[in-house]
Amino acid sequence: MIALFLRDLALAIRAGGGFGLGLAFFLIVVVLVPFGVGPERGILAAIAPGILWVGALLACLLSLDRIFALDFEDGSLDLLATAPIPLEGVVAMKAAAHWVTTGLPLTLAAPVLGLLLHLEPAAYGWLVLSLALGTPALSMIGTFGAALTVGLRRGGLLLSLLVLPLYVPTLIFGAEAVARGAAGQANATPLLMLAGITLATLALLPFAAAAAIRINLR
Amino acid sequence: MDLTVQDLACARGGLPVLEGVSFTLRPGRALMLRGPNGIGKTTLLRTLAGLQPALSGTISAPPEAMAYAAHADGLKPTLSVEENLRFWARVFGQRDIARALDEFNLTELAHRPAQNLSAGQKRRLGLARLLVTGRPIWVLDEPTVSLDAASVALFGAAVAQHLRMGGSALIATHIHLGFEAVELDLTPFRARPRAMDRFDEAFA
């Protein structure tokens, strides 16, 4: 299983692997927002937690359809399904590799981009913490969506429609945790809810995704 | 390990294509599946490999005993020949890839990215994967597509070597591979269209 994780990382980093796509998109969104809403400090600071979370979420969404589609097209998925690794393990490793190449860079880049949006100084720590807690859930839910749509031609649209509603709770609690942190209020509850969502998706969705792949390979 | 298939029926896209398939494959033997296009050779092989459930019938060997190779080779274009093969070796818990590279004459290409290989070279790399699975029953779907005569000979030698070491092979192919093998024509097993008893079955 480690081999699969390392292979996916190597594929993402090499030419055409899509590493940096999500990061570039996140950068573009956050840079464009001040042009759209105006450079006024108060407004930007008020919407910064939401914009940063929405940007991270959409950036995550961009690379989802690659998770299984390429492996399906070149036959790797058939071979992985007949390999001694359980398919649940394959799904978990795919999600982990997606998080390391997408969620983790987004989490690390977010504070720098927060600067462009006049994010309150108190909120930087909460921003990184909430993204670190929440982006694994985005990767896992996205992997589940990719498993459901694997084998469909142009499944990207369906994938987005399936996944976006599932992303909403993560977005609400993530942005809320940062906003409360910025206002100096207690934000333990949204952070705990965020951690709970992530743990629940990590525990349940590998099994659901593996079952979806088995059906799609028939 | 013996592979005994009894009264197997399998379906493609929800429609039965084969029924009543029975054969026994013993260690050291190869079985060639013959039959016209669309008869269900690929469907049968995918069913045996555990990628889809059988409609009815029994398969004695578990999917874990089989190494499956299909039309697609499962290669990553940006990884080198050696990296592709080493990945599959690690997935199957094996270490040695030198023999596989050597038997399929890939040693000189080891560091070339798979995207720069010709179709035949890719096919050879896909077949070399079989050697690093360490599994006794090879289940191969049209393994000689895009191979030239010399490569077919290499492949035939690799299968013969596998059979000598106590393995077995089930191969769907249209050509002769140069070693002794039993042939099984699937034409008599074509599934008869069934009358639908109930309206709902049309959507099952």
TrEMBL record, chain A:
GO terms (BP aspect): cytochrome c biosynthetic process; cytochrome complex assembly
GO molecular function, one term: heme transmembrane transporter activity
Compartments, as annotated in UniProt: Cell inner membrane
Domain of life (superkingdom): Bacteria
The keyword Membrane appears for this protein: yes
Major location category of this protein: membrane
InterPro entries: Cyt_c_biogenesis_CcmB, Cyt_c_CcmB_bac
Keyword Transport appears in the UniProt entry: yes
Keywords: Cell inner membrane, Cell membrane, Cytochrome c-type biogenesis, Membrane, Transmembrane, Transmembrane helix, Transport
Transmembrane feature ranges: 12-37, 43-64, 96-117, 123-150, 157-179, 191-213
Record's GO cellular component terms: plasma membrane
Topology of this chain in the membrane: Multi-pass membrane protein
Biological function: Required for the export of heme to the periplasm for the biogenesis of c-type cytochromes.
Family: Belongs to the CcmB/CycW/HelB family.
NCBIfam families, A to Z: ccmB (TIGR01190)
Descriptive protein name: Heme exporter protein B
Species name: Rhodovulum strictum
TrEMBL record, chain B:
Signal sequence segment: none
Gene expressing this chain: ccmA
Protein name: Heme ABC exporter ATP-binding protein CcmA
Keyword NAD: no
Biological processes annotated in GO: cytochrome complex assembly
GO molecular function annotations of the record: ATP binding; ATP hydrolysis activity; transmembrane transporter activity
SMART domains: AAA (SM00382)
Domain named ABC transporter: residues: 3-204
Source taxonomy: Bacteria, Pseudomonadati, Pseudomonadota, Alphaproteobacteria, Rhodobacterales
Highest taxon, organism lineage: Bacteria
